[in-house]
Design brief:
Strand content of chain A: 15-25%
Helix content of chain A: 25-40%
Number of domains of chain B: 3
Radius of gyration of chain A: 18 Å
CATH superfamily of one domain in chain A: P-loop containing nucleotide triphosphate hydrolases
Structural class of chain B: alpha+beta
Largest interface: A-B, 31 and 26 residues
Number of helices of chain B: 23
Largest sheet of chain B: 8 strands, mixed
Strand content of chain B: 15-25%
Distance between the termini of chain B: 25 Å
Radius of gyration of chain B: 33 Å
Shape of chain A: globular
Structural class of chain A: alpha/beta
CATH topology of one domain in chain A: Rossmann fold
CATH class of one domain in chain A: Alpha Beta
Oligomer: heterodimer
Shape of chain B: elongated
Number of strands of chain A: 10
Distance between the termini of chain A: 32 Å
Order of helices and strands of chain A: EEEHEEHEHHHEHEHEEH
């Protein structure tokens, strides 16, 4: 995935807000990238632009060789089916479907036949194999997020975009989810871009991009939590 | 994807069920109407098939003016000469022929009153030969053989406590006569003849009772073996008098069935209209409920979009949901219709319309129409919510508290609403007032116009909600304290939603207001008329207020001491200037008991009619371009042709007069009608209305249980009974659509409570009691229903004005009392609708509600 010179302006005239002011980045296959930054730094906007949920004012995003910012809604939808998996802060599971049905939802929507062996493997690795016929209301927050991760992985998308995946979990459960994300990248070679404001979350990434005022201001590779916190402290001061 | 949509629906069972009810009731009305009318038609068909099953040919009299009553017992239908029977019997093709009398006679119960007031009392003659053709069979006793014998139907005997051996009163042409019951009979093939009673006499007795000595109403003929019915009919035809006709038994049964089905088709259309209204209201409820559900599922729909669902898939999942709800609701409605058919029948019976019955008839057409209409309406109502659902952007999946984008049409609500209202009023005016268009087109214009008017007001409603809630919520704020104030705020919070909910109720209330206002106008006009026209002391009418009754009752009171004037007004059908008109005939003295204004002529005109005179009403004269001196040709059912000259033009009050359109003298009338009857008889007495006079007149009428003596005030009240019955019938039928809108309010409130779970938890946490929560919901409900009244009642009044203008309605009366009742009814609807949602809101667990996400 490649993004070039993304800008995003909200509103017009003197009250306009520039959320992104020229962000370029490239994610190589199998890489786990974290995007960090204080509130209002533009990291959510960047994420939405990369996912095709929001159109940048200028700039381009290529996913699997397709430039997505100019795609129609219908083409974008089909691209999302094939190439993008989502993990949300609030899980966004469908309450009336079982865990397994939720995991299979992208296949159901696309009308493709699920690969049972892959599904079983996935459910086992994400640790929800014995919970597959439970409904979300019968699962803990951590379990729900595991279901959501399995759902994002099930179609083996080109890229998984995770939006504050630990934002709604306690620290122990959050840690387990981060381990799972790391394992997904290591074991399946899954490319993942994760937006977070937690130093611990960022520390599992291969590469960390720091965003401030709509610009990438710093980049670290394989940093520890302490290093991340240092950078954050300087950004906020 | 289909499974996902269906599972979603299963996960919202209560909501789906509440949505479905809106359609169930309308479909039940449609299916019930078909079942009821099909059943009655089948019963009539069975009655007539039985009646003529053994007759190869049936000879009856032929009404000269074409409104054929094929049972031969219509008051104006000519009878057949007795000699015809012998000549028919002499034909070589004939194996058996029997003459019979078919007429009408009322039976009198133990209480001295007529048993069947709304349904006909049928009278037949019995002969041994005729029994071959008769659909009647004995259930007890014997057939009548002596002049004083009568058989009655077993149902009447059981219901009214009569048994073989007892005496029973019979009213035929003259005063009541006593007969001895010698047997009871039943009619083959049907379980009930409606409320009709049967009386069977010997042939000579029947001929005497109905003044048809030596004559027959019907001759039934059986052919010799090998003679086709058609050949028999051809052989008989040359023998017939000018006023006779012959048909094969089968054709006769079909003709008779066809004559009754015309009337049943009117009932059917009438009832279907109410089913249609209920479905129309239901479509508002469905559209609103689906809109709310979709707004609440914004997050979920957006998630589906991020997972790769296309707009089309989202739209289809909503439409699929509607299809499932519509199908389930229509199937339930279809079968509920079977029960509703019985309820409708009971309703009609209670309003005096009693029709024969057989086992319920459930035709394929009923199933197809009920299902197609129910499903189609649901799908149409779902179209807009489905389109809105596709506008949920995928990004809503990651935004907390994402809201559905406002409808693209919302900002056109005000101008669009006003434009629609203007167009609808134009359509209504065209439909109601424009001449020169066919009735079909005009009705279509009125129907579409009315629908558009409701639609336009509904579009306008969101703009009106905030100011109206400000006013209508005042009582809630005063009575309900903090809860009332919050309720007012909640009602105005989502104007589109409140408006849509109230609009459903608006339709029902607008229609009852229309009916109520028109009825009030009719009533006041009628009362004005009676006050002006009724200058007598007493009047005599039939006990049911509308049937013509024997002239003999008027003769009976003539002999009462102190009577100054007794003047009856005859009434009968006639063809006047080529179209069937109600002909009346005042007796001498009418000018002293009936007062009308005269455009030409004077008060004495009714006394000077003589053999060749006639007077007409001003409206009729204007329509037919008649002047004094114009000649008028009148044909009576018996075939008499009268050539009369107009000698006066009456200008009766708008509420009508006893004279109708065309009047001739009673002597001329009596010569042309074999069985003249009075619609009204007016009496002027020395001393006016007094207990002694009342007693004397009542005593004189003791032989006429079908006659009712009344003063002016009683007369007014009695004559208004028919109007009141009709009014109540309309109210009951319209209440169906109000019930549908009630469920709409329940729906909205249940969904709202669900949506505000967190907020309700917060309110409870800061100290709101359960009672206060319930009160808050109740007040919101009442404000919504009052909003329905505030929109519906003015719309109803406007519709009444338009309809009033169409029927040249001078007396436009706003029945304030009735409208207050409607407002109270609306409040009641609001209170009832709030019961379930308020209970759910009150039961919320504070802690869980706060954690609810």
């Amino acid at each position: 995935m490649v993004a070039r010179e993304l800008t995003r302006r909200y509103g017009e005239g003197p009250t306009a807000v520039e959320a992104l002011r020229g962000v370029s980045l490239e994610v190589t296959p199998g890489e786990l990238v974290a995007i960090m930054g204080p509130s209002g730094s533009g990291k959510s906007t960047l994420m939405h632009s990369l996912a095709g949920l929001d159109r940048p004012t200028t700039g381009t995003v290529d996913i699997a060789g397709t430039e997505i910012t100019s795609l129609s809604d219908a083409k974008l939808t089909l691209l999302r089916r094939k190439h993008i998996g989502f993990v949300f802060q609030f899980f966004n599971l469908l309450p009336m479907l079982t865990a397994e049905e939720n995991v299979l939802l992208p296949e159901t929507i696309a009308g493709t036949r699920p690969d049972r062996a892959w599904l079983d493997d996935l459910l086992t690795r994400t640790g929800i194999a014995d919970r597959r016929s439970h409904r979300p209301s019968e699962l803990s927050g951590g379990q729900q997020q595991r279901v959501a991760i399995a759902r994002a992985l099930v179609t083996r998308p080109t890229i998984v975009l995770a939006d504050e995946p630990t934002g709604n979990l306690d620290s122990k459960t959050g840690g387990e989810i981060l381990d799972l994300m790391r394992a997904s990248a290591d074991d399946f070679g899954q490319t993942i871009v994760m937006v977070t404001h937690e130093a611990r979350a960022a520390s599992i990434a291969d590469r960390i991009l720091f965003l401030a005022d709509g610009l990438i201001v710093k980049q670290l590779t394989e940093a520890t939590s302490a290093e991340v916190l240092d950078v954050m402290a300087t950004l906020q001061s | 994807m289909i499974r996902v949509a269906l599972k979603g629906l299963l996960g919202r069972k209560l909501r789906a069920a509440l949505t479905a009810i809106a359609i169930v009731l309308g479909v039940a009305m449609i299916s019930g109407t078909f079942v009821l009318t099909d059943t009655i038609k089948a019963a009539f068909s069975s009655v007539f098939t039985q009646a003529y099953k053994n007759a190869d040919a049936v000879i009856t009299g032929k009404s000269a003016i074409g409104n054929n009553n094929n049972n031969g017992n219509g008051p104006g239908t000519p009878s057949l000469p007795g000699s015809l029977l012998a000549r028919v019997q002499a034909l070589p093709q004939v194996s058996l022929a029997a003459g019979a009398i078919n007429d009408q006679a009322q039976l009198v119960g133990h209480d001295g009153k007529v048993i069947s007031r709304a349904s006909p009392g049928l009278a037949f003659s019995h002969t041994d030969v005729g029994q071959h053709f008769s659909p009647l069979s004995l259930t007890s006793g014997t057939w009548p053989s002596a002049p004083g014998d009568v058989d009655i139907d077993a149902a009447t005997a059981t219901k009214n406590g009569f048994a073989v051996g007892q005496e029973i009163g019979v009213i035929a042409r003259g005063p009541v006569e006593r007969f001895r019951i010698v047997g009871t009979v039943k009619f083959a093939g049907v379980s009930s003849l409606g409320g009709a009673t049967l009386a069977i006499f010997t042939l000579p007795t029947a001929q005497r009772l109905f003044h048809k000595q030596g004559r027959y109403d019907e001759i039934d003929v059986a052919a010799k073996r090998g003679v086709a019915p058609a050949a028999l009919v051809s052989a008989i035809r040359p023998l017939l008098p000018a006023d006779g006709q012959v048909r094969t038994g089968q054709a006769q049964a079909q003709q008779a069935t066809k004559d009754t089905s015309g009337f049943l088709n009117i009932i059917q259309d009438f009832l279907l209209a109410f089913g249609g209204i209920a479905l129309f209201v239901g479509s508002f409820v469905i559209a609103n409920t689906l809109s709310i559900t979709i707004a609440q599922r914004t997050r979920e729909l957006a998630t589906l979009r991020t997972l790769g669902a296309t707009r089309r898939q989202v739209r289809r999942s909503v439409m699929l949901e509607a299809l499932v709800i519509g199908t389930a609701a229509s199937v339930v409605g279809l079968f509920l219709g079977l029960g509703l058919a019985r309820a409708l029948n009971a309703l009609f019976v209670s309003f005096g319309i009693d029709l024969p019955q057989t086992g319920a008839v459930f035709k394929g057409r009923t199933i197809v129409i009920s299902l197609v209409v129910g499903i189609l309406i649901t799908m149409l109502a779902a179209l807009r919510p489905a389109l809105r659902s596709t506008r949920v952007p995928p990004i809503a999946a990651v935004r907390e508290g994402a809201l559905l984008p406002p409808s693209r049409f919302a900002r056109f609500g005000l101008s669009g609403g006003l434009a629609t209202i203007a167009a609808s009023v134009a359509l209504l005016l065209i439909g109601l007032l424009a001449g020169g268009l066919s009735t079909g087109i005009r009705l279509l214009a009125v129907g579409v116009g009315a629908l558009a008017l409701f639609g336009g007001v509904a579009m306008l409603a969101p703009t009106l909600v905030p100011p109206l809630v400000g006013v209508l919520g005042r009582p809630s704020r005063r009575l309900g304290g903090a809860a009332g104030g919050l309720a007012q705020g909640n009602a105005a919070r989502n104007p589109a939603r409140t408006a849509s909910t109230a609009s459903a109720l608006m339709i029902g209330l607008a229609l009852v207001t229309l009916v109520g206002v028109l009825a009030a106008g009719l009533r006041s006009r009628f009362e004005d008329s009676v006050n002006k026209v009724f200058v007598a002391d007493y009047a005599i009418t039939a006990t049911n207020n509308f049937s013509p009754i024997s002239v003999a009752s008027a003769e009976a009171v003539r002999r009462v001491p102190g009577v100054n004037v007794v003047a009856g007004v005859r009434a009968g059908s006639a063809r006047v200037l080529g179209s069937t008109t109600n002909l009346t005939a005042p007796e001498p003295g009418a000018s002293r008991v009936i007062s009308v204004d005269w455009t030409a002529g004077n008060r004495q005109t009714p006394e000077r009619l003589g053999a060749r005179g006639a007077f007409v009403s001003k409206d009729y004269a204007d329509a037919q371009h008649l002047r004094v001196g114009s000649s008028v040709t009148i044909e009576t059912p018996s075939g008499a042709v009268l050539h009369q000259t107009v000698i006066g033009i009456a200008n009766p009050p708008k509420g009508g007069s006893p004279y109708g359109s065309v009047a001739i003298s009673s002597a001329t009338f009596d010569a042309a009608y074999p069985n003249p009857q009075n619609l009204y008889t007016f009496i002027d007495m020395q001393g006016g209305v007094s207990p002694a006079n009342t007693q004397a007149l009542t005593a004189a009428l003791s032989g006429f249980p079908d006659a009712k003596l009344q003063t002016k005030a009683q007369f007014t009240r009695n004559q208004e009974q028919g109007l009141n019955s009709l009014l109540n019938l309309l109210y009951v039928l319209l209440s169906l659509s109000i019930v549908v809108s009630l469920f709409g309010i329940v729906n909205t409130l249940v969904l709202t409570v669900f949506e505000r779970t967190r907020e309700l938890g917060m309110l409870r946490a800061v100290g709101m009691s359960r009672r206060q929560v319930r009160r808050m919901i109740r007040h919101e409900s009442v404000i919504t229903s009052l909003l329905g009244a505030a929109l519906g009642i003015p719309v109803g009044v406007v519709l009444a004005l338009l309809v009033g203008a169409a029927i040249k309605y001078p007396a436009f009366t706003i029945p304030v009392g009735t409208l207050v009742v409607f407002v109270v009814a609306a409040i009641f609807v609001g209170v009832v609708a709030a019961i379930l949602p308020a209970r759910r809101a009150g039961r919320l667990n504070v802690l869980e509600a706060l954690q609810y996400e």
